[in-house]
Amino acid sequence: MIYLDNAATTKINPVAWQAMQDTEQNNYFNANTLYLGGIHAAQAIDQARARLMQKLHASDGQMIFTNTATQANHLIMDHCLRRPEQHLVITAGDHNSVYLYAKARAERGYTVTTAPLKRDGTIDIDALQQLITDQTALFVFSLVNSDIGTYQNAAAIIATVRARNPKTHIHADAAQAFCKFDFNVTQLGLDSVTICGHKIHGPKGVAALWMRDGIKIEPPHGTLNNAAVIGLATAAENFNCPQVDTLHRYLVEHLPAGCQVNGINNNPYITNILLPNIFGETVMNALSSREIYVGLGSACASHAKGNRTLDAMKLSPKAQKQVLRVSLGMNNTLDEIKTFIDALTTVLAAIRNHDII
Q: What's the CATH code, domain 2-10+242-352?
């Protein structure tokens, strides 16, 4: 089996898995209890929180744990948007958790504006500048686009928003960026950031929301999952993918004739491939029969009729159906990429020739 859909989820790192098992066996106490076992559990949670904040280069602030990145995004959006006259700005490439939330707010009378993307998948900063007003309470953007992998110019984006309205809360969904890119939340001047465990070879069912000093949000009620939190912190500290640039370069340089890459290709972890007049779902299913797994785009939007990111980049509705998303992780090898390229070449030729695959 060759797994090339790591942007959807990842296989857990054995080091993180071992840390989780150790926690479940030896530090399983409820961190809210006041006896010694609970105190030790709370200390382990605090240490995990500190380790994650260090990875974000956060010099201060609060971090709370959630079940999912979607939940973390919604918590900060709920905090910032309390009155209909408050203005929300998102971007055309945001994750469904942001887009659907914004859509629901608009239906309740809130003013919601979407900043466009350029044809290369980057946020149109000139257009964004015109959208920020005195009433803009919150701006949300994805640091890495989950469909095409574009790594956005966060510094320029944040500076633009701050220049227009210094009071606007700026939230970055960093689920696809955390650990894969080294960014400093303090230097960037972000107000809040979402990170996620299962995108970095950590456990599913755990994410975190970091907020700068001065922002206070109550964490979700209930008993905290000690093992998942420890697994998230351990996965973050042990995320290491030194071969990713080599694998990405080989992938792009050896794509079959007629294939091309969508958007600016500045992120080796995610590559969105436009196929030569062939539906991506057909190719994905053919590859799946060979136990080679790729995606079509963001897993949370995989059943949608269109792709909002590609639509914003002006790809035709037909072209939007002719894509594959290949996303790399710690476990991929060059031999796997070579096998994928060979299989893709064979599948495309068979489809063109109307052969049975």
A: 3.90.1150.10
